[in-house]
Design a protein that fits this description.
Blueprint (H helix, E strand, L loop, with lengths): L2 H13 L2 H8 L3 H15 L4 E3 L2 E3 L1 H27 L6 E6 L6 H12 L5 E6 L2 H9 L5 E8 L14 E15 L10 E2 L7 E4 L5 H8 L4 E5 L5 H9 L5 E4 H5 L3 E2 L6 E3 L2 E8 L3 E8 L6 H10 L11
Parallel strand pairs: 3-4, 3-5, 7-13, 8-9
Antiparallel strand pairs: 1-2, 5-14, 6-10, 6-13, 6-14, 11-12, 12-13
Helix pairs in contact: 1-2, 1-3, 1-4, 2-3, 5-10
């Protein structure tokens, strides 16, 4: 299949419109129609219904393959071009909202201090987008985070050959209102909270918790942003519970004398003691030629001097 025709098909299906696809791709509507007809002729099957514009069953199946195929083509192109690339003084780092921990931020600062001319751009996006951006060459480095068992790799989309290095792990806390009956506990078990009201957020997807412990974890509110302060304000107001890395919850709180709770403005963070889960951060990068990107990757992957952010 011609990748250009496949791109056109995906764009038309995404917009549900030939004219909108033409505007995005810079073709005439007639040219878009011809390209779709050529792809349908190649496969011998109709791929799109015209009124309304929507995929046929064959088109739906092709869409399942199209995204990974086009991504692998972009990744292959980026990988080939990197072999002849000269070291640049600009670096783009894609990161999930909670991936750049305090320890990793310090390592990045050390890398920049050693390379004063290096210009760094940090893009925030979700975990799948981080992997795709690195694979496609849109970012030289990526930092992705998530909930995992200690030392277990994160679940990332298949985007081609990438180096993945665990660069940080820390404990998780259950964030709940300060007046919650469980707020005074030294630790909490996730199994005891299956029937609680939870926040559905990109920072703590409830489907991950269900995958670990089965049904339950009912979403009381769906928050689609990634601001930790907003999440903690929602927790404090009683909209639901969530899991956060201890350092993220601690940004707005103060440690009590017991060291088990973090309280501030109506919310409380209690350590999760079972099952044994951690907040894990992984560094993603392709094969890198010698240069600033490879140097920064090595700095981010270096073992910290203390136990903080230590992968286990």
């Amino acid at each position: 299949m011609d990748p250009h025709l496949l791109t056109t098909f995906v764009t038309v299906a995404r917009h549900g419109s030939f004219s909108a696809a033409a505007d995005e791709l810079g073709y005439t509507q007639s040219a878009i129609s011809q390209q779709i007809a050529a792809l349908e002729s190649d496969l011998g099957l109709p791929l799109l219904r015209r009124r309304p514009v929507e995929p046929t069953p064959a088109g739906e199946r092709l869409l399942e393959h199209a995204g990974p195929l086009l991504l692998r083509l972009r990744a292959a192109r980026a990988d080939v071009l990197r072999t002849g690339a000269q070291p640049a003084h600009a670096l783009t780092l894609s990161a999930t909202p909670l991936a750049l921990t305090a320890g990793l931020a310090r390592r990045l600062a050390a890398a920049r201090a050693a390379r004063p001319r290096l210009e760094v751009t940090i893009r925030t996006c979700d975990r799948d987008q981080v992997a795709r951006a690195v694979a496609a060459g849109e970012s030289q480095l990526g930092l992705a985070d998530g909930i995992a068992a200690p030392s277990d790799p994160l679940r990332l989309p298949e985007v081609g050959p990438l180096t993945r290095i665990g660069v940080a792990e820390e404990e998780l806390v259950v964030a709940l209102p300060a007046d919650h009956p469980l707020a005074g506990r030294a630790g909490l078990r996730l199994a005891d909270l299956i029937d609680a009201r939870w926040l559905q957020t990109p920072l703590c997807p409830l489907e991950r918790l269900r995958a670990l412990l089965g049904e339950g974890f009912r979403a009381a509110l769906d928050y689609r942003g990634d601001d930790v302060h907003t999440v903690l304000n929602l927790v404090a107001a009683g909209h639901g519970l969530t899991l956060l890395p201890a350092s993220a919850a601690g940004r707005s709180g103060q440690e009590t004398s017991s060291g088990h709770e973090t309280k501030s403005g109506g919310w409380c963070g209690v350590p999760l003691v079972a099952p044994r889960l951690v907040h894990r951060v992984e560094l993603l990068h392709p094969a890198l030629p010698p240069g600033p990107a490879a140097d920064v990757a090595a700095e981010l992957a270096a073992r910290p001097a203390t136990g903080q952010d230590q992968p286990r």
